[in-house]
Amino acid sequence: MNSPVFLRILKSEWLKTKRSPGRWMIFIIPVLTAMIFIWYFSKLTLSNDIQVKIYQSFFEFWTALVIPVGTGVLAGLIVQQEEFAGNFIALLGSPFSRTSHYLGKLVILILQTIVSSMSAVFSLLCGLKLFLEIDVPYSHFLLAVLTTEAGLLPLLALHLWIGMAYGFGAAIGLGSGGVILAALVGATSLGNKIWPFVPWAWPVRLSLMPGHFFPGMDLPTSITSLTFFWHQTLMSVVLSALLFVFLVTGGSIWFNKWEGRKIPD
């Protein structure tokens, strides 16, 4: 792949988001989410395990609700831009390879989710420090963002593929359905044995892994050990990487043969 050409495509894809709701969504929604949690915990009596409660409740909410829905919306908006720009004519008629365009859209989607999660965590940590005077281990939150994104990658590839093939509504529907799986399998004990095989549970479970090492976390030693952490994390990351490669490869091959989609009047 020609690097200068791909950088031009990335710049073009980013400029396309200038008038899209996705541009402000990745900043406003994270800040609003952080503000809600800061307000909520300001009403509670601060206890010794307040750091653990903040960490768990924030990432469970973020990964089980905001991320599934947000992924569907962002992927749908990326596709919708091409629909409104001449029913994919500009995209399909580009002199550059279709694979480059497809990967460009995927990279923009990945960057949007990273920026969104980082904005949410940064806003939360600043708010806790400034308004509640609560110090939390920043490294745990930052590591959780990385593990969340590692589990999210195949879902981003899947949403983009579904969005291109079936439209904005399908991407939103897939994200909404993902909320149920993420909440039940990822955030409850129902998924303790099966979550490594349910992609929608990966961002939830992986985001909570670093929290096992919080001071005051009351968990069995077998769960808080580094061996358990690396085994669970690596197994999920490897599965996520394999599925990501499969979906990106499949999506690229499909997109190279795709001739557009008829949009209802």
UniProtKB/TrEMBL annotation:
CDD domains: ABC-2_lan_permease_MutG. Keywords: Membrane, Transmembrane, Transmembrane helix. Pfam families: ABC2_membrane_4. InterPro entries: ABC-transptr_permeasesu (IPR022294). The chain crosses the membrane at residues 21-41, 61-79, 106-132, 138-158, 165-187, 234-255. This is Lantibiotic immunity ABC transporter MutG family permease subunit.
